[in-house]
User: Fold this.
Amino acid sequence: MSQANLLRRRRFLPLFVTQFLGALNDNVFKNALVVLLTFKTVQWTTLSPGILSNMAAGIFILPFFLFSATAGQLADKYDKARIAQLVKMLEIVIILLAGAGFAAHSLVLLMTALFLLGCHSTLFGPVKYAILPQHLHEDELIGGNALIEAGTFVAILVGTLVGGLLAAADDTLWITGTSLAIAVAGYLASRFIPSAPAPDPGLPVQPNPFVEIAHVIRHARVDRTVFIGILGISWFWLYGAMFLAQFPAYAKDVLGGNEYVVTVLLAAFIVGIGSGSLACERMSGRRLELGLVPLGAIGLTVFGLDLAWASPDVPPEGTLLGQWTVLHVLIDLVLLGIFGGIFTVPLYTLMQERSEPSHRARIIAANNILNACFMVAGALGAVALLSSGVSIPALFAIGAVCNGLVAAAMFVRAPEFARRFVAWLKR
Assistant:
């Protein structure tokens, strides 16, 4: 069944809409809060905008470390559709708490709401991927994963833009009202997700999250190819987050642009990821095709290096979007996104197809934990390199070289990727 047909099916559309609105709301609220605190700091706290921005990012990602393993247990123990509905109800309560924080000018309440939104995303993470094999046929998994991946990144882009606009209006009632409307719409969509019975209803839930983290990571390593795939997904999140984090400074200092140029860079990258993700279904013949993973890795390395090479030494003058240098940069970002989508969609499908049904949500939870670890490690590494005097284009080049080395190590440790790549080329 084609991707367009999936979007007309109740076994997929409500989940897609629920996931899209959840990712949208996370980014609307998070970006609105960060922008508001950055430009109106004195109204809220004596902390510097830089500290606030990093604190907000850390608070949002912390639940992924702490509670992903527990979320995986819950998704294996209970009906995933019911969990989705409860999580969406929680989202409404969180936004009301955030509204109280805005009304009281309480940074503590706002950061608590941000932490709880991170918990909301953590709880929903194993559900959205583990439920797909229960509702989709095997030849639909690639298309379903592609749509979820594309929708998530589009939601990130739209949420970032809407959050910035709401913050610029400097009206916290609008921020609360918009986030509340999105949360309510997400809950209504979740009500239509078909039941997805628990694969292991007798599973005892481990109350100590750290014990369970060790357990799910250990279990994820049982199948080497699946675990290599999880590491590949986590690496992509590190690599992609490294590029996204540099866009504001890159637009200003390298291209000589303003905040609108940042938006154009972000849009180019996300349009590429959406396009590459959706192309996977046709390129793979609607089945799991691990041969696409090396193709994606090659593109991520080549166009990462080309982006570093295309970046100007001196910011260009005049209308930026009419100059070849800037167009070259945008083309590289679109292609980076395309090959990123080609790289990740088969890996998500691999994780779903080859995981034991009774442990699938916990395997996905292990993936979420490692994603968070890799992103934090990547951010710290980028800060260290930039602080030592490395330029942003040089950072891109270093990341691209590392991507090539990581990919080579993946394919040596799991030769199936390389064998399937050769077979795919010969088709």
Summary: The chain has two domains: 1-192, 209-427.
